Task: inverse folding
C-alpha cells in the first residue's frame, strides 16, 4: 500500500462515512492528548533546597548600589563612638548663639509652666 492508495481510502471514508471519520479523529486526538498529559504528569519534579539567609550582624558590610545619588563619603550606618574626637568637634559642632539660647530658655519655661500650672 503506497501513499496514494492511503490518501484515496481516507478520502472515500470521509465521503461515505463522515461520522465514523469524525469519531476516529476525535479518538486519535484524545489518545494523543492523553499521552501528552501522562508524560507531563509523570516527569519527576526537581526539588530545590531553600537556603537560609545569613544572619545579619551589626558589623556586616552594607552593599550600596552604584549610583550617582550616593556620594562616596556617605555612610548609611556606622558604629558610633562613645566620644567625639577633637577633629570631629572642630568639623561638626557649632556653638549656639546667645539669642537662640534665650529663645530656647523661654520656650522651656513656658513648657514647664504649662506642665506645672497652678500646682502648690
Result:
Amino acid at each position: 500500500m503506497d501513499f496514494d492508495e492511503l490518501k484515496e481510502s481516507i478520502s472515500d471514508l470521509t465521503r461515505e462515512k463522515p461520522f465514523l471519520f469524525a469519531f476516529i479523529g476525535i479518538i486519535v486526538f484524545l489518545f494523543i492528548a492523553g499521552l501528552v498529559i501522562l508524560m507531563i504528569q509523570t516527569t519527576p519534579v526537581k526539588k530545590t533546597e531553600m537556603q537560609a539567609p545569613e544572619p545579619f550582624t551589626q558589623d556586616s558590610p552594607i552593599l550600596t548600589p552604584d549610583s550617582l545619588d550616593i556620594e562616596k563619603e556617605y555612610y548609611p550606618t556606622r558604629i558610633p563612638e562613645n566620644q567625639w574626637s577633637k577633629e570631629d568637634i572642630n568639623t561638626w559642632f557649632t556653638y549656639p548663639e546667645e539669642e537662640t539660647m534665650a529663645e530656647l530658655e523661654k520656650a522651656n519655661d513656658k513648657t514647664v509652666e504649662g506642665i506645672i500650672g497652678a500646682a502648690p
User: Anything to note?
Assistant: Helices lie at 3-16, 18-42, 86-92, 98-116. The chain has four helices and no strands. The CA atoms of residues 113 and 120 lie 12 Å apart. The chain has a mean pLDDT of 83.
